[in-house]
Amino acid sequence: MFGEYALYYAETVVALVCDNRLFVKPTPGGKAMIGTPDEVAPYKGAKPHYLITEKLDDRDWLSGLLAVTARDLDSPKPRKPKALAKSASRSRQKQR
User: Could you read off the pLDDT of 70-81 as tens digits, one per residue?
Assistant: First the structure.
């Protein structure tokens, strides 16, 4: 994908670690916690994320930020298994 690390919170990607920097997905709750965040793209072609430079050592604040971010983001949609999706499209083609 992008060659770096994704941080998950309850099966939801909430942040990225790229070039040894922490980028949190932008959400209203996250912005309220951070105040005035720096918005930077973590890699070329990515949407801007909140760059976290302060409070990296504050475990309670950081875990709270990730929890708020996860709560604000939509839950990931379950994916269909590839074999099932391929067989379903083949059966539709045969019916035509």
Answer: 999 976 667 777
